[in-house]
């Protein structure tokens, strides 16, 4: 039986928190740390500073107007801190809260959290990098001054390395003892003993007291990624109690076998991969077959190179027609972008969605035709 989210929130894990941080790894893994700290995983959350907050605060660029007359939001920087103020001039009301935590690397955008009574809440205005503008935060409706969206522990579990929870007169509270961003220990396990051993045994070349995910069985490798990339799963055990190498289904409820996984920001990307013919035909294939989490990866042509381990471009039935575009279009045709159902952006004039890459590797004739036609249109200009 699944334990209710609220009850789980009242339980505090007895396991040691993961708090070493990537800085402790630099002495021996300088190059890996240097690239890893540039990734979206590492930057998925941070304290609000001039470096981490991406949105503009200069006059003329710091307002979000809404579709409701007299309702707007103003972003300000005062004395080194950042604030959001919601104004409802028709009712003579305004609410101001400080930006305390940044969620999102900024590649696509950012949302912001504020502390109140030992809890974290989402601020109503986010920043969307693609258009360089302030927008209504996901989950908030346009034209409402609302600062009440609570951040539950499951959200923090995927946007932070560690968060200590405690009870205050029976109510859940978040401690200020936390580690933001996804750090090394999220995948490699607690690193304190590893660091201590190798600090006193610098000549030892074999890593001791640390987990190498590549040496795990495939299912356990996938579980590390599935903690945050297998959809919204109800918890069985307290948040932040899962440790890499354990069976994830013992900590969260398995996805329903009757429901097809969907590609989305909170969708079951691992489930989509597992249903793919490539995955089912390749006993050794896992997320790390294509992804190196230690460095930023955005070039789809580089991902297409991974496909060449099994597929020959010369054997593609449309090789002559596609020609040199084979590598640049491979991912877009066989792993197309799909419209998000989880994140809908409300603006004063319209609602629009973001798009996310599907990990259901397959053949999509309609998508392929659209990609090919887009090239024809470009060539005919």
**SSE pattern:** HHEEEEEEEEEEEHEEHHHHHHHHEEH
Spans where pLDDT lies below 50 across 5 or more residues: 1-19
Shape: globular
Q: Which range does the strand content fall in? A: 15-25%
Tally the helices: what do you get?
Answer: 12
- Alpha-carbon Rg, integer: 23 Å
Q: How many beta strands in the DSSP annotation?
A: 15
- Helix-strand makeup class: alpha+beta
Helix content: 10-25%
Distance between the termini: 61 Å
Q: Main sheet, how many strands, which sense, barrel?
A: 7 strands, antiparallel
How much is the average pLDDT?
88
Description:
With 381 residues, the protein is α+β, with helices and mostly antiparallel strands. Among the domains are: 43-181, no CATH class; 292-379, no CATH class. Helix content is 24%, strand content 23%. It contains 12 helices and 15 strands. The strands form 4 sheets. Strands 1, 6, 7, 8, 9, 10 and 11 form a 7-stranded antiparallel beta sheet that branches. Helix 11 (326-334) packs antiparallel against helix 12 (365-379). It is globular and about 70 Å long. The chain starts with a helix and ends with a helix.
């Amino acid at each position: 039986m699944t334990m209710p989210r609220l009850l789980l929130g009242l339980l505090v894990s007895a396991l040691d928190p993961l708090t070493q941080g990537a800085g402790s790894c630099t002495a021996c893994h300088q190059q890996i740390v240097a690239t890893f700290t540039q990734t979206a995983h590492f930057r998925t959350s941070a304290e609000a500073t001039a470096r981490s907050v991406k949105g503009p605060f200069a006059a003329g660029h710091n307002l979000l107007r809404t579709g409701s007359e007299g309702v707007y939001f103003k972003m300000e920087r005062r004395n080194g801190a950042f604030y959001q103020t919601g104004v409802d001039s028709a009712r003579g009301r305004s609410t101001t809260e400080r930006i305390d935590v940044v969620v999102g690397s900024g590649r696509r955008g950012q949302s912001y959290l504020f502390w109140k009574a030992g809890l974290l809440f989402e601020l109503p205005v986010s920043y969307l990098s693609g258009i360089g503008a302030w927008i209504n935060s996901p989950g908030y409706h346009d034209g409402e001054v609302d600062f009440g969206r609570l951040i539950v522990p499951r959200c923090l579990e995927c946007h932070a390395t560690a968060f200590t929870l405690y009870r205050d007169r029976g109510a859940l509270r978040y401690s200020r003892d936390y580690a933001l961003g996804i750090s090394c220990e999220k995948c490699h396990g607690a690193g304190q003993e590893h660091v201590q051993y190798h600090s006193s045994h610098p000549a030892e070349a074999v890593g001791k007291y640390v987990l190498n995910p590549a040496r795990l069985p495939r299912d356990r490798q996938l579980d590390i990624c599935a903690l945050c990339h297998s959809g919204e799963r109800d918890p069985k055990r307290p948040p932040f109690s899962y440790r890499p190498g354990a069976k994830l289904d013992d900590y969260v409820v398995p996805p329903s076998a009757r429901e097809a996984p969907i590609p989305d920001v909170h969708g079951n990307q691992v489930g989509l991969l597992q249903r793919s013919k490539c995955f089912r035909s390749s006993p050794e294939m896992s997320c790390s077959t294509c992804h190196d989490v230690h460095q930023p990866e955005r070039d789809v042509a580089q991902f297409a190179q991974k496909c060449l381990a099994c597929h020959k471009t010369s054997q593609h039935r449309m090789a002559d027609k596609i020609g040199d575009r084979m590598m640049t279009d491979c991912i877009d045709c066989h792993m197309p972008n799909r419209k998000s159902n989880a994140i809908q952006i409300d603006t004063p004039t319209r609602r629009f969605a973001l798009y996310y890459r599907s990990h259901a590797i397959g053949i999509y004739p309609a998508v392929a035709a659209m990609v090919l036609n887009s090239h024809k249109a470009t060539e005919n200009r």
